[in-house]
Write a structure and sequence with these properties.
The complex is a heterodimer of chains A (105) and B (611).
Chain A lengths: L3 H21 L3 H25 L1 E2 L2 E2 L2 H31 L13
Antiparallel strand pairs in A: 1-2
Helix pairs in contact in A: 1-2, 2-3
Chain B lengths: L2 H21 L5 H24 L4 E12 L5 E10 L1 H24 L6 H20 L3 H19 L6 H32 L18 H18 L8 H4 L5 H11 L1 H10 L1 H6 L1 H23 L4 H21 L5 H27 L12 H4 L1 H15 L5 H16 L1 H26 L6 H4 L6 H16 L3 H7 L15 H21 L11 H4 L4 H47 L7 H21 L2
Helix pairs in contact in B: 1-2, 1-4, 2-3, 2-4, 3-4, 3-9, 3-14, 3-20, 4-5, 5-6, 5-9, 6-7, 7-10, 7-12, 9-14, 10-13, 10-14, 12-13, 12-18, 13-14, 13-17, 13-18, 14-16, 14-17, 14-20, 16-18, 16-20, 17-18, 18-22
Classes of the chains: A mainly alpha (105), B mainly alpha (611).
Chain lengths: 105, 611
């Protein structure tokens, strides 16, 4: 039986991988995927806290319900985000962040 | 047609004519002048109808401003026409002089540029002056007061391509503004103190004025500032001689009935306040006397035929103002205004006739011997000149002597000042008459001068009649009923006072004819007088040095402190901040994400550790 710490560790690793992807990768698609990974890490820790945190000896499902909402919103966000990326690609023929520096001084 | 209709028609027809001339009849000379003359004739008929019917009443047009101050009090500025003995008489003066000048202008302006502009200006001028005469409260009078200022600006600056004319118009306007500012303060002051601005209820005992002679004096003197500006009293007289740059009929209208008379009329209007304040009337009296004497001296030093008349107007206005300051009755200054309007108008129109005959030469030292060339003009001029000089039996002597007689009774020092002025009057007028009309011609123009056309001479001859007769007893009784104020002799005068007046006239006129008997050039050249007491030069200096210096200081502060430091300084500071900050815009989305994350972590750290 894994403990809460195991879950949080897995969540932390997942978050760190996501953060590293966002910071270091060059392709926007991959950055976007890493971003989703960070979101999933947060979801995982939420569910874990919900599973192990008892209120008055009873389980609290609030956080698990919240996770469903987050997944739903994330799905919508992905739809919007991917649409932006597609139109960006159409406009600039690239999805590499180094090439998108028009706002630079 | 009821009487209120007639009053409104009298007032508004010149305005309509002015608007029509500007909007419709620009291209047609006869239509433009015809409309103006027609409107003047309508005003003439209306004014005389009101006068003969002895109309008395306050005809409210509408309430222009009506504001509730609280539940019980309203602040109202009505636009209404007040017709009483005072405004009836003034109305007749204005509306009688105006058509004559309008008709005379037909001849004088025939060849001039801006024909329609000139007649539109004249009609507007007439409208403004009628408004002053008929206004039933101080604010409405002030509106028309300013309109007179504007229309005089238009007319004085008629030859605006000439620098001197443009400057004169500007000066007339600005100098009047100084006086008008005092007038405006006076109106506010009176309104604050009494809560009322209508002439019918002017009351020196009302409201906060009760038992406050100093407050009353301040209010009256502030309003008197308007008179000082408009009636060209010392020290704001400088604009009137310069206003001679306008066409001569305009000068005539300006000096006789429509502008400078407004100031005296204002004094007659607020006479209940003036009479109740001995301090204020003392100031008015002295200003008037100083002006009467000073301008009399200055008239001797002038070479311009119109300049002499201009200073003589200022001097005569001084008599009127002094007459008001004697605080005997409102009729006293109005009587002199009445007689003066006719002979001064006549003198200016004669001068205009001379100028036209001389091909626009105005220097009297280039004229001479014109009496044979222009006999009708000379006759008319002679009537006006003698009336102005106070020749016994002619109109001017009655009104001027009456003022001086009251001065003898009330204020001996003023009396002597005025008598010296009264001796100067025949002196400078006879000087002008002798140099212009007598002797031998001093230039080719004078040799070939010719009489003016009938359209110009006729108004001259018509005006000569009232110039002679306006002071006679029966005329006086018609125009100055008891209700306007008493014109009684000033108590019992010693027998020699009458002889002082007559000898002042005789001495003045004899001296002038003795000195100016056909000289080639001015035998009596006094630089102080020719340079107008250096008052104009002093004003020029004051404006250029003091006011100009202050303006430069303001400009410096504005340019370097307000603009340089406050406005541009703040803009530069923001720009510099932005310049520094934009180095953070590296253009790398991941760097932004890093900054963002680092910021969030720093924020969490601060929130957790700092209390």
């Amino acid at each position: 039986m894994p403990t809460l710490a195991n879950y949080l560790l897995a969540s932390g690793i997942l978050f760190a991988i996501g953060l590293g992807g966002v910071m270091l990768r060059r392709s926007i698609i991959v950055i976007f995927m890493s971003l989703e990974m960070m979101l999933s890490a947060a979801n995982l820790s939420l569910v874990a806290f919900s599973r192990y945190g008892l209120v008055n000896g009873h389980q609290n499902f609030n956080a698990q319900i919240l996770v469903f909402f987050i997944i739903t919103v994330a799905a919508a966000e992905v739809a919007v985000g991917l649409a932006i990326i597609v139109s960006l690609y159409r406009a600039r023929q690239t999805t590499h962040v180094e090439d998108l520096d028009t706002l630079k001084f | 047609m009821n009487i209120s209709m007639i009053a409104w028609i009298t007032l508004l027809v010149p305005l309509i004519a002015a608007a029509l001339i500007v909007l419709v009849t620009r291209t047609s000379k006869p239509l433009a002048s015809g409309l103006a003359i027609l409107s003047a004739l309508v005003a003439f008929v209306g004014a005389w109808t009101l006068f003969i019917a002895k109309t008395h009443g306050d005809f409210l047009g509408f309430n222009w401003i009506n504001v509730a101050i609280d539940l019980d009090h309203h602040f109202t500025i009505p636009l209404g026409l007040l017709i009483d003995p005072l405004s009836r008489t003034m109305l007749v003066i204005v509306a009688t002089i105006a058509p004559l000048v309008f008709i005379y202008s037909l001849g004088y302006m025939k060849e001039e540029e801006g024909y329609w502009r000139y007649f539109a200006g004249l009609a507007l001028f007439l409208f403004s002056m009628l408004g002053i005469v008929l206004a039933d409260n101080l604010v409405m009078m002030f509106i028309f007061w300013e309109l007179v200022g504007v229309s005089s600006y238009i007319l004085i600056g008629h030859y605006f391509r000439k620098n001197s004319a443009a400057d004169a118009a500007k000066q007339a306007f600005l100098v009047n503004r100084i006086g008008d500012f005092g007038f405006m303060l006076g109106i506010l002051f009176i309104w604050l103190a009494t809560g009322d601005i209508s002439f019918a209820s002017l009351n020196p005992e009302a409201g906060a004025l009760q038992g406050q002679p100093v407050m009353l004096a301040i209010g009256v003197v502030l309003i008197f500032c308007g008179t000082v500006g408009k009636s060209a009293q010392f020290p704001l007289h400088v604009w009137l001689p310069n206003s001679m740059e306008g066409p001569t009929p305009v000068s005539s209208l300006l000096h006789a009935a429509t502008m400078v008379a407004a100031g005296v009329y204002l004094l007659a209007r607020i006479f209940p306040l003036l009479a109740a304040s001995p301090q204020a009337s003392e100031i008015v009296l002295w200003i008037g006397a100083i002006t009467a004497l000073g301008a009399g001296f200055l008239a001797i030093g002038q070479d311009d035929i119109k300049g002499i008349l201009a200073y003589s107007t200022i001097s005569q206005l001084g008599y009127m103002v002094a007459g008001a300051g004697l605080a005997v009755s409102a009729a006293l200054p109005m009587f002199h205004l009445f007689t003066h309007a006719f002979f001064k108008c006549l003198l200016f129109l004669s001068a205009g006739s001379v100028i036209l005959g001389m091909h626009h030469e105005q220097d009297i030292w280039k004229m001479g011997g014109l009496k044979n060339k222009m006999p009708l003009t000379f006759l008319a001029y002679l009537a006006g000149m003698l009336a102005l000089s106070g020749c016994p039996g002619l109109s001017g002597s009655f009104s001027k002597d009456l003022i001086m007689a009251h001065a003898w009774a009330d204020h001996r020092a003023i009396f002597w000042v005025l008598v010296v002025g009264a001796a100067l009057t025949p002196f400078y007028m006879a000087r002008q008459a002798s140099v212009v009309f007598l002797g031998s011609p001093r230039s080719d123009h004078a040799k070939h001068a010719h009489e003016s056309p009938m359209v110009m001479v006729l108004p001259l001859l018509l005006l000569a009649i009232p110039s002679i007769a306006a002071g006679w007893g029966f005329v006086k009784n018609i125009f100055f009923p008891e209700a306007l104020g008493s014109l009684e002799e000033a108590g019992h005068l010693p027998w020699f006072v009458e002889w002082i007046f007559i000898s002042a006239f005789v001495v003045g006129i004899a001296l002038a004819f003795a000195i100016y008997r056909n000289p080639a050039k001015d035998p009596l050249r006094i630089p102080l007088l020719a340079n107008r007491f250096y008052i104009d030069a002093f004003y020029d200096w004051a404006v250029a040095t003091i006011q100009g210096g202050f303006a430069r200081l303001c400009s410096f502060i504005d340019r370097w402190f307000i603009n340089g430091i406050l406005v541009q300084g703040s803009a530069t500071a923001i720009w510099f901040l932005g310049f520094c900050l934009r180095f953070l815009q590296v253009g790398n989305i991941q760097a932004y994400a890093f900054f963002f994350g680092a910021g969030v972590i720093a924020l969490i750290y601060v929130l957790l550790t700092v209390h």
